[in-house]
Specification:
Elements (H helix, E strand, L loop, with lengths): L1 H20 L12 E10 L14 E7 L3 E8 L2 E14 L2 E8 L14 E8 L2 E4 L8 E6 L3
Antiparallel strand pairs: 1-2, 1-8, 2-3, 3-4, 4-5, 5-6, 6-7, 7-8
Keywords: Signal
Protein name: Lipoprotein
């Protein structure tokens, strides 16, 4: 009787350890899931609100859960890409994504001439470029819903 009880206890303990240690992590470290924000509106830095019906180019940001990003632009049939890492930053006037590019690239739209680009988070489905502050175009990006 004692051996049966001991055997039952050992089996129960092994099962408990197996299920406790085998639980899946919910942090998704190294996940490849992306959020894609497509360029949906463009207006001149001179004439705010004058949104072009036909965009001059197609553009998208793909943001990874690992804080990596890729920016892709298609213009006149040519595709160019740039990548780096990003961080989400709260400032006095709202929340922003700060994109840090790996190297200088013509896709970087900023006023400072460095390897960073700043996007204002309008809400969780919309981003706005801040390049307009120095007469660049006003660019709006909308989250692509699968």
């Amino acid at each position: 009787m004692m051996q049966k009880l001991l055997k039952f206890f050992v089996i129960a303990l092994v099962m408990l350890i197996t299920f406790a240690c085998g639980e899946k992590s919910t942090t998704n470290v190294g996940s490849t899931e992306l959020q894609t924000y497509n360029l949906t509106a463009m207006s001149s830095g001179q004439i705010v609100g004058d949104t072009n019906n036909a965009l001059e180019w197609e553009e998208a940001y793909m943001l990874g859960e690992d804080f990596s990003f890729e920016k892709v632009r298609v213009r006149d049939g040519e595709t160019i890409t740039a990548s780096g890492n990003y961080e989400r930053k709260a400032m006095d006037d709202g929340e922003y994504l700060i994109l840090n590019y790996e190297k200088a690239h013509p896709l970087i739209g900023n006023c400072s001439g460095d390897y960073t680009e700043t996007l204002r988070i309008v809400d969780e489905t919309k981003l706005q470029g801040t390049w307009i502050a120095c007469d660049g175009p006003a660019l709006t990006y909308t989250l692509k819903v699968n």
